[in-house]
């Protein structure tokens, strides 16, 4: 049985301007001990889809299926799903300051999170909080446990939030842009930390990011989202070594790399992400795609379906295998 099995998930928000189709038919699977990177620009539906897994949308119309460890979460009792949050699944946000309460010490917040699911004394929970702070690399956790969030640096706060999320040993950890606000060195440390903890705890991890570089080292599988849908997914090595979708080419091109040559040759992605109220017809990427003309029309009216291209790698694009191969070898990686 797959640990997390998301099937044809749709998350729509009714608004005065119309229906916002934030997620429109998303499917993926994730096993324990594995990491999935969900990648896309802001507004692609990556955060919304994960908040749906956690049961955190109040005003949304949600359809499809979300199976967590054999249990269907779509339509499940709210109280029950709340019980699963923290204990079975937890989330790390981009901005710990907004996720942590300013008036309580870091220690009090970890203690609270822990005691929701564990019947232990405050003293025992506090000891656990200190252990967790130590575990995520906070120096002198015995004294830092009584600090307030604002007394921590950005990187330390992020570590504290990871401690809070992991204090109940969740089987599913969702990290939404966990390092976006941090400088490059701290970013690398936090990513290492997530990887170490994942190995130690054996959790399933979803990392949401707009930056493919963040998941390059970390993810076993990568799912690329555009306009609320998956446009490409597969093993990480496939996505980096054999990318098939023009949007993924663009994301790779806008990624800072050590071998700058390739990114200099690649075109940055022109234009802006689509409106989720009026998603372009056909392939949602077509107004921005430099290759639609090779296909001759279909891109503008026919939604491309995900098709397997080998090795567990799927792509939703009307270009033929041969056309993609030619573009790749003539324009993107000639030689
Ligand atoms: Fe570009 Fe057409 Fe492929 Fe969409 S389906 S990515 S518009 S070539
Ligand atoms: Mg987001």
UniProtKB/TrEMBL annotation:
SMART domains assigned: AAA
Matches recorded under Pfam families: ABC_tran (PF00005), oligo_HPY (PF08352)
Keyword Kinase: no
Keyword Cell membrane: yes
Keywords assigned by UniProt, alphabetized: ATP-binding, Cell membrane, Membrane, Nucleotide-binding, Transport
Database matches in SUPFAM superfamilies: P-loop containing nucleoside triphosphate hydrolases
Record's subcellular location: Cell membrane
Annotated ABC transporter domain residues: 6-252
Alphabetized GO MF terms: ATP binding
Membrane topology: Peripheral membrane protein
Family: Belongs to the ABC transporter superfamily.
Name by which UniProt lists this protein: Peptide/nickel transport system ATP-binding protein
Species assigned in the record: Kutzneria viridogrisea
Lineage, top ranks: Bacteria, Bacillati, Actinomycetota, Actinomycetes, Pseudonocardiales
């Amino acid at each position: 049985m797959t640990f997390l099995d998301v099937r044809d998930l749709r998350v729509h928000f009714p608004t005065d301007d119309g229906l916002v189709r934030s997620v429109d038919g998303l499917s993926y699977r994730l096993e324990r001990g594995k990491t999935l990177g969900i990648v896309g620009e802001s507004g692609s539906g990556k955060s919304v889809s994960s908040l749906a897994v956690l049961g955190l949308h109040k005003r949304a119309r949600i359809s499809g299926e979300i199976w967590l460890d054999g249990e269907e979460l779509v339509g499940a009792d709210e109280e029950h799903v709340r019980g699963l949050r923290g204990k079975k699944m937890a989330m790390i946000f981009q901005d710990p300051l907004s996720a942590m309460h300013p008036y309580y010490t870091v220690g009090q917040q970890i203690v609270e999170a822990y005691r929701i699911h564990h019947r232990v004394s405050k003293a025992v929970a506090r000891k656990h909080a200190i252990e967790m702070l130590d575990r995520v690399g906070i120096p002198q956790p015995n004294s830092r446990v009584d600090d307030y969030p604002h007394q921590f640096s950005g990187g330390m706060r992020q570590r504290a939030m990871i401690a809070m999320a992991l204090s109940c040993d969740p089987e599913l950890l969702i990290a939404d842009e966990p390092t976006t606000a941090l400088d490059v060195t701290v970013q690398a440390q936090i990513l290492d930390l997530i990887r170490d903890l994942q190995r130690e705890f054996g959790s399933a991890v979803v990392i949401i990011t707009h930056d493919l570089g963040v998941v390059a080292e970390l993810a076993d599988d990568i799912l690329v989202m555009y306009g609320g849908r998956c446009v490409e997914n597969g093993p990480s090595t496939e996505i980096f070594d054999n990318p098939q979708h023009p949007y993924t080419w663009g994301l790779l091109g806008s990624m800072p790399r050590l071998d700058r040559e390739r990114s200099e040759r690649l075109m940055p992605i022109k234009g802006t992400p689509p409106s989720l109220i009026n998603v372009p017809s056909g392939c949602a990427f077509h107004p921005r795609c430099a290759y639609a003309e090779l296909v001759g029309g279909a891109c503008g009216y026919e939604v491309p379906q995900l098709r397997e291209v080998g090795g567990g790698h799927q792509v939703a694009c009307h270009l033929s295998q041969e056309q993609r191969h030619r573009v790749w070898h003539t324009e993107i990686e000639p030689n």
